[in-house]
Amino acid sequence: MDELRPQDPSGIGVYRLLGRLGAGGMGQVYLGRSPGGRLVAVKVIRDEISDHPEALTRFRREAATVEAVRSAYTAQLIEASLDAPPYWLATEYVAGPTLRGAVQAAGPFPPDSALKLFAALAEGLAAVHVHGVTHRDLKPQNVILSPQGPQLIDFGIARALGQTVLTRDGAATGTPGFSAPEVILRNEAGPAADVFALGATLAYASTGRPPYGSGDAAAVSYRVVHEEIDLTGVRPALAALIRECVSKDPAGRPDLAVVIARCAVDSALATDSHYRSLPHAGAAVREDPVTAALPADAAEPDEPAVSAGPPGPTPYDGPDRRTRPSRGGLRGSLGFAAVAAVLAASATAWLLSGPPEDRAAGAGPTNGAEASRRPVTTAPAGKPPEHAVDDRESRDRWTLSEDPAEAAHGIGSCDLSDGLSQGAPPAGLRTSVSHTTGSDTASVTVRPKDAGEGKRPSPYHVAVGVRPPHGIDPATGRPTRALGKGVGFTSEPVDLFSAWSSGGTVTFRYPEDFRAHVGERVVEAVPVGDDRGDWTVVLYHVEDGPGGFTSVVCNGFHA
Predict the structure, then answer these.
(1) Among the listed residues 537, 507, 500, the one whose alpha carbon sits nearest the alpha carbon of residue 356
(2) What is the SS3 assignment for 236?
(3) Residue from 51, 112, 137, 317 carrying the catalytic annotation
(4) What pTM was computed for the model?
């Protein structure tokens, strides 16, 4: 929880405000205390959007939904003020980390614990559906892990089955990576879409990774519609149940009662050893002036719906706000036609998780194990290094989205307006960037769409540049305090079509396959953990040696 800011009120209604719990597109959520000492979560709609009829309708709907849905798995509505500004509602405060916060802190759930969580969340959704309401935004940060069991929060976009959808034309609700294909393509959000979100949420809980990868929102949505979920390392029986829940066809997803039965739990989640080891806040609330001993990730409510249209301004004054100039880039879940256009125009990211043996022999970069032992060296006189030389300024920079709903899943965008000269990638080129939070590594995969079909095309050499958030001192190889301006650490050029007959995928692994070449010096790539922040990944078309390269795809990740 964050301290109150000077512009925050000291109280709302009868409640004294103690601190900030979270923020989203519609409002700010505070921890409040009633005159009798009860802790509550107070959501206040933002002043700048309180005059919008649609926003007020949505806020009133949320209050009505929370009041109607009474369940052991949902926080109860205590009071609301919806007739005059400031508009607010107060709900029962549920102490505990979000599922996302718990996984980030303690790692993925063990298989047996994940099954118990699966059953408990399915039961919670079933209790919501009994009231004729679909949640429509189930995801790890909308699940609080209380000592008694999971609680579903944020019904800001939930609706009764007969209600009208409150989104503008061309918009879709939910969060990329957790919104079902029918939501992305047609904005159809029924009970089956909640089942999809349940499966995606359990995939995250079981792996610690975004279920459909991270990156641009359009790319994540494309994977949801066309690619398979990432369940690498998940126990086969659990993975099979998750796959059924995330079936592309809503009719192919199991009923929640079937999910609960197949989990076959024989004890309460609250008694599970892994669940009990999580940092539940419980009785840990203090009232030092305005600080309470709550996890920083205690609640992240009311994140805005993602949009298929051009993004409008999304007011956000949350604790992680960073002041940046406005930038281009697609944001939000796109319908099929829009996604197809993105693919044709910019070779948007594509998820491919494969074992090391998937790399075609002789097609990938240098052997990582051998390269990782190389010291800083000097290239032979008169022979330029094989990598791109880091003496050209590139302003291509990937940054994490300021929208909390997108940032929570590693979604960001690239500013390409001032970068190196831009080239057009081969039609249908698919790329992916993968990084697990907390690790020192990342991987980049590239694959032609129709690899293996027809005659192999003429060579098209590509190299990947991975630029840390800050510059690198060539003398020491350590990050500096200034922003990096060069192309960063680069891989050796590889023919994109060299693996044409064996699947077509070329994988670059960071830091093993990357070096920085500054003049005649060769500097080893720094581990991701040595420089926290927004990392930029650029795919270059290399034509005439180290000096002749053109950027064709930009992506990145946050570490």
Answers:
(1) 507
(2) helix
(3) 137
(4) 0.53
| Per-domain boundaries in the chain | 11-92, 99-277, 347-558
The rounded radius of gyration (Å) of the Cα atoms in the chain is 24
Pairing label, strands 442-447, 430-434: antiparallel
How far apart are the C-alpha atoms of 275 and 279, rounded to whole Å? 9
Euclidean distance between CA atoms 463 and 118, whole angstroms: 42
Decide: 139 and 197 in contact? Cβ < 8 Å: yes
Which pLDDT tens digits describe the chain residue by residue (559 residues)? 789 999 899 999 999 999 998 765 567 889 999 999 999 999 888 776 666 666 667 677 667 766 666 678 887 888 888 888 888 888 889 888 999 999 998 999 999 999 999 999 999 999 888 878 888 889 998 899 999 899 988 764 444 333 333 333 334 457 889 999 999 998 888 899 999 999 999 999 999 999 998 877 888 888 999 999 999 999 999 999 999 999 999 999 999 999 999 999 999 999 999 999 987 643 333 333 222 223 333 333 333 332 222 223 222 223 332 233 232 332 222 222 222 222 222 222 322 222 223 323 333 343 332 323 233 333 333 333 355 665 677 778 888 887 776 777 678 888 765 445 566 777 778 788 888 777 788 888 888 877 778 888 888 888 899 999 988 887 777 788 887 777 889 898 888 888 888 778 888 999 999 988 777 778 889 999 889 889 999 998 887 655 577 888 888 988 8
Q: Cα(460)–Cα(363) distance, rounded to whole angstroms? A: 12
Identify the CA nearest to 21 among candidates 144, 118, 184, 148.
144
Q: CA 168, CA 176: separation in Å to the nearest integer?
A: 18
3-class state of residue 127 by DSSP: helix
Write 243-252 long-range contacts (CB < 8 A, 24+): 243/199, 244/199, 245/195, 245/196, 245/198, 245/199, 245/200, 245/202, 246/180, 246/196, 246/199, 246/200, 246/203, 246/211, 247/196, 248/181, 250/180, 250/182, 250/188, 250/190, 250/192, 250/193, 250/196, 251/192
Owner of token pair 């990868």: 213
Q: Look up residue 6 and give its two tokens.
A: 């000077």
User: Rounded to a whole number, what is the distance in angstroms from the first to the last CA of the chain?
Assistant: 21
| Distance (Å, whole) CA 466 – CA 211 | 23
What is the rounded distance in angstroms from the CA atom of residue 230 to the CA atom of residue 241? 13
Is 137 designated active site?
A: yes
Give the residue among 448, 120, 397, 138 at the shortest CA–CA distance from 263.
120
Q: Does domain 99-277 have CATH number 2.60.40.10?
A: no
Closest CA to 118 of 243, 202, 244: 202
Residues 6+ apart with CB under 8 A from 472: 478, 479, 480, 484, 488, 489, 516, 523, 526
What the block records as the tokens of 22 is 């979270």
Domain 11-92 CATH (choose: 3.40.50.300, 3.30.200.20, 3.40.109.10, 3.40.630.10): 3.30.200.20
Cα gap 24→314, rounded to integer Å: 9
Q: Name which of 383, 364, 386 is nearest 374 in CA terms.
A: 386
